[in-house]
Design goal:
This protein is α/β, with parallel strands linked by helices. Helix content is 48%, strand content 11%. Bound molecules: FE(4)-NI(1)-S(4) cluster.
Length: 639
Amino acid sequence: MKDCQSCSSATGCYSAHDSINEMYERTTDMGLRTIFDRHEDQQPQCGFGMTGVCCQLCSHGPCRVTAKASRGICGATADTIVARNLVRLASHGAAAYSHHLEEIAKTIKATAAGKTPFKIADEGKLREIAGVVGLDNTKPANELATELADVILSEMRKGSDEPLALVKLFAPATRLEAWEKLGVVPGGVLSEVRDAMTKSMTSINTDPVDLLLTSVRLSLATGYMGLIGTITLQDILLGTPQITKSEADLGIINTETVNIVAHGHVPLVATAVLQASQSEEMQELAKAAGATGIKVYGSMCTGQELMQRQETTAGGFAGQLGNWLIQEYIVATGAADLVMMDMNCSTPGLKTAADRFHTKLVSVDRVVRMEGVTDHIDYEPEKIAEQAKELITMAIEAFKHRGTDIVIPTHKSAAVGGFSVESILGALGGNLDPLLDAVKQGAIKGIVAVVGCTNTRNGHDSQGLTIMKELIKNDILVITAGCMSSAAQIDALMLPEAAEQAGAGLQAVCKALGVPPVLNFGSCVDIGRIGVAVTAIANALGVDPSQLPVAVSAPEYLEQKAVADGIFAVAFGLLTHLGPVPPVTGSPLVTKILTQDIESLTGGRVLVEEDPQKAAQAIIGHIEAKRRALGIEQPVLTR
Ligand code: XCC
């Protein structure tokens, strides 16, 4: 709990958001133990795990490296154990992103064959990308979409000795050169995952440096397949984000409608349910049950995907509830009828909360299962039209059993979403020059992507928000993806009016363009969109990404996808701040490589700093140094 005197909540200030503190008070009164309680139950946490020096790979273990025992029973050093654990974390992330990509590619093929309720939404992007990968882009759209999906699927399945074409086609030339020199240009992501898991088995690869390079390869495969590949196909299928107006926070919940929560990362089921929910058939069914209509609420990254492509309207999409940490509190309002759990971040605690209410939990992806949850409607592109109706019907049934104990916090904020390279170009009049000029002239000192998860370890959203506010105050444009997007939406930073909190230069740019100082790029997979934006800026300026006044901060990173993302950012040449100390500090070698030595190889490095103010100052210092090196005058003045 935060040591804070200003919170009105009797149970204290665990979250940066009043709505969540109020809901925590409610769950405490109900005797329902939630994530903040379990976090406290776990204290103090294991120092060996925290520093990455616990090895549980074989039955000799667990081995823990200590001053007394400097090696595991097999002889592995702390450096080997830490590097091996890191590869395994990144492998999980790479695998999960690949699952997402495969679902989208399969859906494009089924859509092109006319078997889904979707249609190719961005034919222009389809033709552009198809042309880049060497397809005849004058073919009919459906034929071309099938061919492009097949190219992506075959790229995924390439051997690790066959370099990914997507890296060669889309990476800045200077990056490619750096990666070739290091020998880390990856092959197909599935082969890279196989190699990484093989290498990190007991006593196969025990060289910490080679294991770190393996993490870099994996992360590049993830970056160009799971991130950039996924967002590209998703844009083609669902539409490239354009500026939208929306709302966020628990206060958006309507007590009179059937309420369906779209929860996860893969927005296919959510999009189909949203479409189907507007049909007369479903509306009539909801009304017959006593509801005024049906609303679909965004949660976590699936919600961000919806928000990037939909306005909040009277019916249909209701806005974004929040990020992963609040899932139990959504249920605890008593007004969530059905939660559709796609991949990933549905916590087991959600079931404990749902058991106290009428809320129905349904897993909607074949890889998602939760103890005690018996309803599974596993997404199949060819069946999704029927599956969507089935889900809505289940929600209406659950609505009939809704209790009277309902508490909805009053807080909500308007938010603007839908930023992408394309929508920014649109706002700028067709080319990046106005943005680049603002950077060169110092009105915008730099750009920082504040991305990734949130967690209880360093405060629900508080670190991320502190960093964002400090950066915009110093004329640094912030772009967000993942759970950090929800943090900013709820804190009203994604409104043009938030420009008042920015420094004079950024404020003037935001006001001229009518945009917020914190731009929503979407879900965590949209970190790929940030890679595309940085590539476009670097290419426009004719420099390497590592030379730009650009950085990344994952101030509250949580899980394995974020590990792969973080290593991708470092490989991309960017300073990458991590809030929670990653489990590497037990190895002096790995720590030194990631925080220092790697800069001479990739241009990027990890900055570990748990104090958000200090982290912001270090990032500002980095931006200043990059501006100086580029010969751009007017360095950032820390206010
Ligand atoms: Fe999960 Fe995406 Fe992380 Fe949030 S940001 S905790 S992965 S919901 Ni992706």
